[in-house]
Amino acid sequence: MGQPADVLRFDQVELRRWRVDDVETLHRAITESRDHLLPWMPFAATHDRKQGEGFLAYGYVPCRGVGDQSFDVAGRTIVSSV
Questions:
Q1: Considering the domain boundaries, does residue 1 fall inside one?
Q2: What are φ and ψ of residue 39, in 5° steps?
Q3: What pLDDT, on the 0 to 100 scale, is given for residue 67?
Q4: 24-71 residue pLDDT tens
Q5: Which residue blocks in 1-82 are alpha helix, DSSP H?
Q6: Domain with 24 in it
Q7: What are the two backbone dihedrals, phi and then psi, of residue 28, each rounded to the nearest 5 degrees?
Q8: pTM of the complete model
Q9: 10 or 65: which carries more pLDDT confidence?
Q10: 10 Å Cβ neighbour count for 60?
Q11: Distance between CA atoms of 8 and 16, rounded to whole angstroms?
Q12: How many C-beta neighbours within 10 Å does residue 37 have?
């Protein structure tokens, strides 16, 4: 199975992978949602920008045949992260 497209568009929605320049958006999303994330994602307890930069620099990673990527809607509103 090949690598999925970097950007998927349908109607007014644009889904795309995280990019290295999204570090501020990622940091804000984790910081603002920390209490909600902690029961399922222990990394949120110690998350900082440096960890976010490392995650974003890592890029595409195949995961059981499905892309292990994250998406957001055009306009910078995060709707999903896998």
A1: no
A2: -60, -25
A3: 37
A4: 988 998 999 999 999 988 989 999 999 889 888 876 554 443 334 444
A5: 23-32, 34-37, 49-58
A6: 7-81
A7: -65, -45
A8: 0.65
A9: 10
A10: 13
A11: 6
A12: 17
- CA–CA dist 38, 9 (Å, integer): 31
Tokens 């045949």, residue?
A: 65
> 82 with 68: CB under 8 angstroms?
yes
Q: Is 27 exposed, middle or buried (0-12, 13-18, 19+ CB in 10 A)?
A: middle
Domain count for the chain = 1
Distance between CA atoms of 33 and 79, rounded to whole angstroms?
13
23 is a domain residue: yes
Q: What pLDDT is attached to residue 13? A: 80
Q: How far apart are CA 67 and CA 2, in angstroms?
A: 9
Instruction: Return the number of other C-beta atoms located less than 10 Å from residue 15's C-beta.
Output: 19
